[in-house]
Amino acid sequence: MADQALDWAPPEDLTRSVESSEYKAAHRFYRAIRTAVDPILAIPLLIVSLPLLAVIAGLIRVDSPGPALFRQQRIGKDRKAFTIFKFRTLTKHAPEYSLKVAPDSPVVTRLGRFLRRTGLDELPQLWNVLRGDMALIGPRPEQIELIHLYEPWQLQRLVVKPGITGWWQIHHRDEIPLHLNVDKDLYYIANQGPRMDGVIIGRTCRIVLGGIAGALFSLHRADQSVGPGQLHVTDATAEEASS
Q1: Tell me: the pLDDT tens digits for 13-23?
Q2: pLDDT digits over 85-138, tens only?
Q3: Structural domain range at position 129
Q4: Contact assessment for residue 123 and residue 155, using Cβ atoms and an 8 Å cutoff
Q5: Cβ atoms of residues 49 and 126 within 8 Å
Q6: Of 10, 29, 144, 148, which is most buried, counting CB atoms within 10 Å of its CB?
Q7: What value does the CA radius of gyration of the chain take, rounded to a whole number of Å?
């Protein structure tokens, strides 16, 4: 990450605004409200999601060997470490830590491709919100092993709680360099508020629903173009490739 950022730095006014006392004063009330409201909202969301969580957990266990949940140490607000919970989308032979895994990588399970495409693998993080480790909206939670690679300006993204979704998360499919993604986190921190949160929530819903619709459409096309016998062979080949 540090190597990627050597030839680039964020706009000076952006990092200055995040560090300034004016920023802290202007956002103190908003952040206090979010700190109180996010766990309260997480409770009904978690209750409503329980049937879906149970179904996904069962499908993961059937789809590939290993636990349904993926646990990993991440860095949160003020550089405090916490354990993040996600649905497992990789095989048990996948490396524990990695910068990025391609969607077509053999370590991604069949169900994992669907979960990643729709963002449903993030649902267990509602528990992290309830525990106070995360927020519903915020910067991407960073891997603990990568913090020592951060440039000083990148550490500014740790002044708020990481989020299940956020400005970076709804744009990360743009395939742009990593250092510009950190810029997105800083942009959100400097401009966070109800209006931006509304945009993020709306875009997140579009991504989830679009991913589900796209996956269902792909399955429908596969059923039409592949015969029952061929489909069985294709599934067996896919399972062998991902094991």
Answers
A1: 555 556 666 66
A2: 999 999 987 776 665 677 778 889 999 999 998 899 999 999 999 999 999 999
A3: 2-242
A4: no
A5: yes
A6: 10
A7: 19
Round to whole Å and give the CA distance between 154 and 19. Answer: 12
Place of tokens 């080949």: 237
Tokens of 137: 């909206």
Tokens for 48, please give them: 């409503």
CA quadruple 186, 190, 191, 196: dihedral positive or negative? positive
Cα separation, 129 vs 139, whole angstroms:
13
Closest among 204, 213, 218 to 119, alpha carbons compared: 204
Tokens of 38: 């996010």
Strands (E), the chain: 69-75, 81-87, 135-137, 142-143, 163-165
How many domains in the chain?
A: 1
Q: Which contiguous run of DSSP H or E holds residue 194?
A: helix 194-225
